[in-house]
Design brief:
Its EC number is 2.7.7.12. The protein is an alpha+beta fold and 361 residues long. It has 6 helices and 17 strands.
């Protein structure tokens, strides 16, 4: 992997990551963009009912919304005048979001004051484009290209974890209009939050309770061991990773991918493990796309932890989920789910696991 650093017209950073032998040459970004603001334009406020932080980012109302394919802001811009990517071609590219929920993490950034109920929306929001091909998907990438994406996730995780003002790094992909995607180009996002997110906080709390009640044992390792022993919900495995439908799945289609040894985040994985992750990730996404006549909308969420901040009980894993409950029906998060966070599923995890097992290539 080689990395080429460049800048966009408003001062944001853009990084080009290339496969061996590919020579990517950025051109000047000549779009007439206003200079990037010198301070965060959003804020975070604490919900006193739950203790959760909420980002308030009104500037995102103006973000690009479902443009025609010939006006896609993520496609290559050979002359530097038509998109966010000033180059004739690229393999994988990362740049700061033009409409960020959080921004300006780095030197001088102050951590959130836990005694206050509001603060500036300091953090970092990046866009990662998986390919210059507008009509492809992650599943359709070659192994080497998909491994490049995994390597970029790893590199960005390491970089963002070192930024002042960032407490947690979250890599994710939203795929499909049913999920709410407004740009159809294959891409994901990387968030550097200034706080620990509610779901991470909840999982770490459960892991700490489990460890205290079980002689220091790890909750996630125990979950993995039970799934591997039971086998009913395991849909794929290799030397380094296991993919399974969780025992208490919340979503109609839900798969978790765990490394077979305890690591905290992507930076802990060895080269063979990164290959194993790439293989099983492509395997799962392939099963998703073979499930129905049209591609499955999904969210892919990489859960990462940092032991330097007291998160030793965390266990890196990926959670993939879809709101599609049949070929032509969606699962809407209505009253019980949205108001009370009490999920009700329409298919048993075992039934979904059996279906995914049948979809092996």
């Amino acid at each position: 992997m080689t990395m080429t650093r460049a800048g966009l017209a408003d001062g944001r950073e853009i990084l080009f990551f290339s496969l061996p032998g590919n020579d990517v040459r950025p051109v000047p970004d000549v779009r007439p963009l206003a200079a990037r603001p010198e301070a965060a334009q959003s804020e975070v406020r604490r919900d006193r009912q739950t203790g959760d932080w909420i980002a308030i980012a009104a500037l995102r109302q103006d973000r690009t919304y479902k443009p025609p394919a010939d006006q896609c802001p993520l496609c290559p811009s050979p002359h530097g005048d038509s998109s966010e990517v000033p180059a004739a071609d690229y393999d994988v590219v990362v740049f700061e979001n033009r409409f960020p929920s959080l921004s300006h993490a780095g030197p001088g950034a102050e951590p959130l004051d836990s005694e206050e109920d509001r603060g500036p929306g300091v953090g970092r929001c990046e866009v990662i484009c998986f390919s210059s091909n507008h009509t492809t998907s992650f599943f359709e990438l070659s192994h080497d290209h998909a491994r490049l994406v995994v390597d970029v996730w790893r590199q960005r995780t390491e970089t963002l974890l070192d930024l002042p003002g960032v407490e947690q790094v979250f890599c994710f992909e939203n795929r499909g209009e049913a999920i709410g995607v407004t740009l159809s180009h294959p891409h994901g996002q990387i968030y550097g939050y200034p706080y620990l997110t509610p779901r991470t906080t909840s999982m770490l709390r459960q892991a700490r309770i489990f460890a205290e009640n079980n002689g220091g044992a790890n909750l996630f390792a125990d979950i993995l061991a039970r799934e591997r022993k039971d086998e009913a919900r395991v849909i794929a495995s290799n030397e380094h990773f296991t993919a399974f439908v969780p025992f208490a799945a919340r979503w109609p289609v839900e798969v978790h991918i765990y490394p077979n040894r305890h690591v905290h985040n992507l930076t802990d994985l060895s080269e063979p493990e990164l290959d194993g992750l790439t293989d099983i990730y492509l395997d799962v996404l392939g099963r998703f796309d073979r499930m129905y006549p049209t591609p499955l909308p999904y969210i892919s969420a990489l859960h990462q932890y940092r032991p330097d901040r007291g998160q030793q009980d965390g266990y890196f894993h990926i959670e993939l989920m879809s709101v599609r409950r049949s070929a032509n029906k969606l699962k809407f998060l209505a009253g019980s789910e949205s108001a009370m966070d009490a999920f009700i599923t329409d298919v048993t995890p075992e039934q979904m696991a059996d279906r995914l097992k049948e979809l092996a290539s």
